[in-house]
Amino acid sequence: MAVQRLVVEQVRLALSSNQAVAYAVRDADVDVVAAYPITPQTTVMEKISEMIANGEMDAELIHVESEHSALSAVVGASAAGARVFTATSSQGLELMHEILHIASGLRLPVVMAVPTRALSAPISIWNDYSDLMNTRDTSWVTLIASTAQEVYDTVIEAFRIAEDPRILLPVMIGYDGFAMSHTYEPVYIAKSPERIREFLPRRDRVKLDPNRPVTMGTITPPEWYYELKYQQVVAMNEALKVVKETDKLLGELLGRDYEPVETYMMDDAEIGFLVYGGVYGTLVEAIDTMRSKGFRVGAARLRLWRPFPVEDLVEKTRNLEKLIVVDRAISYGARIAGPVALEVISAYYYEDDAPLIASVIAGIGQRTITEDDFVKLAEVYMRKGRDSPLYRESIYWGVRGVEVK
């Protein structure tokens, strides 16, 4: 794919991550948005509604009666050839679950933002990644942002990835509910959307047309169903290359570089942490503190969750003695109960020089994770060798009454 060297003039605004989503959707020239409110997603749609009302954005806003209907509406609009967007969180994402599979199975380039939130019961409006991790097997390309700036950039990137004819799969962008969705940061956005729209060319694809009727998603017998699902396997495998290509193009466009796995102070590290989302900033501060004390500790951030970037992760963490994976979701009933930790262990299964991999569950229901927590975790695992049971099952960090020795 030819590299487009675009130079975009940008302006600096104070935005929440939810507002950054709205600006990206505006700049991407989206045609149809479907909206249903749920905390902490609601202000995304409020801002988009405001933009449409005041003429900043030319799009059809569909008010629906549920999240299931919101995704259904943009599935229909995408099938008709529109560029579409929606957003949700938590129970709303769970209510959409049936339609998640329909969007990917129909190969529709839907883009959705998910400011992540803990799942009920009991009711929590606060953050963890239980909702997003439940979508693992829905065949959605999934990226996780760690700053409001990255949210803006990644939503724009998502439309190009989704609409690439090699992929034609929906794309989800996750980021921390409240900790990011409702806090403000300086964000650079395009001064004019024209160059963004050059980056996102309109592509002709099969559309629903009353003059040329087609059937989509028809009942399919065993003789063909497997082959159709395998096409999603191929597209998802191809998506890793497309994400990397698009990362590079986005860097040319906006001057900010992204990778599927980002690292900090890893070159000579003995112990590394792997996290995702907004807690990465806290981890980087903790790494600086530990480095000042002479600890050889590094940080890694998983930006691309699906497809899982196996080779990138292994390449960037192979030289570690120990890798501590901190998950903010629980895979109940599994000995290793961290969803990302399970993927990391799988990635290293055929490697002879794998680091010791530790699974830590933390931050559930937005339980605070501080720099001191990372320092203490590093100290715990510095003392533990291969025979320690702490490498054989997940530990639950920060739970009252549960001591990690």
Can you walk me through this structure?
The chain is α/β, with parallel strands linked by helices and 405 residues long. It has 13 helices and 15 strands. The strands form three sheets. It has a seven-stranded mixed sheet, sandwiched between helices. Strands 9-11-10-13-14-15 form a six-stranded mixed sheet, with helices on both faces. Helix 1 (17-27) crosses helix 2 (42-53), helix 1 (17-27) runs parallel beside helix 7 and helix 10 (279-292) packs across helix 13. The radius of gyration is 21 Å and the shape is globular.
Short description:
By secondary structure, the protein is α/β, with parallel strands linked by helices.
Write the layout of secondary structure elements.
Elements: E1 10-16, H1 17-27, E2 32-35, H2 42-53, E3 60-63, H3 67-79, E4 84-87, H4 90-95, H5 97-105, E5 111-116, H6 130-133, E6 141-144, H7 148-163, E7 171-176, E8 184-190, H8 194-199, H9 222-254, E9 261-264, E10 271-275, H10 279-292, E11 297-302, E12 304-306, H11 310-317, E13 322-327, H12 339-347, E14 356-361, H13 371-382, E15 395-396
Parallel strand pairs: 2-3, 2-4, 4-5, 5-7, 6-7, 10-11, 10-13, 13-14, 14-15
Antiparallel strand pairs: 1-8, 6-12, 9-11
Helix pairs in contact: 1-2, 1-7, 3-5, 7-9, 10-13
CATH class of the largest domain: Alpha Beta
Q: Any low-confidence stretches, pLDDT <50, length ≥5?
A: none
Strand segment count: 15
Mean pLDDT: 96
CATH homology superfamily of the largest domain: Thiamin diphosphate (ThDP)-binding fold, Pyr/PP domains
C-alpha termini separation:
52 Å
Per DSSP, the total helix count is 13
Q: At CATH's second level, what is the architecture of the largest domain?
A: 3-Layer(aba) Sandwich
Helical fraction = 25-40%
The total domain count is 2
CATH topology of the largest domain: Rossmann fold
Arrangement of strands in the largest sheet: 3-2-4-5-7-6-12
User: How would a textbook summarize the main sheet?
Assistant: 7 strands, mixed
Give the overall shape.
Answer: globular
What percentage of the residues does DSSP assign to strands (E)?
A: 15-25%
Cα-atom radius of gyration: 21 Å
Structural class: alpha/beta
Order of helices and strands: EHEHEHEHHEHEHEEHHEEHEEHEHEHE
